Amino acid sequence: MSSVQSSPFLRAARAVGDFSNPFYDEERHRDVWNEASAFGFQLFLLTAFLFATVCIWVVGRPALPYVQVGMVLTGAISWLTLMYAQRLGVDVLQPQRLNRVRMVPIVVLVLLLGAGAVRAAADGSSFDRGTASGALTGFLLVLAFFVLTDLRTRRAAARSEQGD
After folding, report:
1. Please, which pLDDT band fits residue 2 given cuts at 50, 70 and 90?
2. Which of 27, 94, 110, 134 is most deeply buried (CB count within 10 A of its CB)?
3. How many domains does the chain have?
């Protein structure tokens, strides 16, 4: 990591992660902690979407603002995690690293969550229509981000294969 210039973002991430702790000096501790953190992050994503989906379908409209805040926080934490890896030169969205079958439960939960949010917001008031259109716009932007990232990664992989 010493070859990567330290930005305020990286310094803040290192402080939050407490990476200067002597615990990280031992290689096995780092490896086990990396695996545990990856497991915890994936479990966090799955349970956040599961909880939000169940809440929106069981509680309905009153849960909508809480679910929205939860999903914004989940998205922000995920984005910051990806950004940290990217800043250190690791592209975690490379096609060879992604197991698309593992994405199926998240995609199903996101679709059910979206359908539940639209159902919960469908009382006809202007605020609820705005919320539903904002959720749809956000969903489409995230989908476009993943499609563009996938295309960019595939093009980069094809260029590197041609250069080899």
Report:
1. very low
2. 110
3. 1
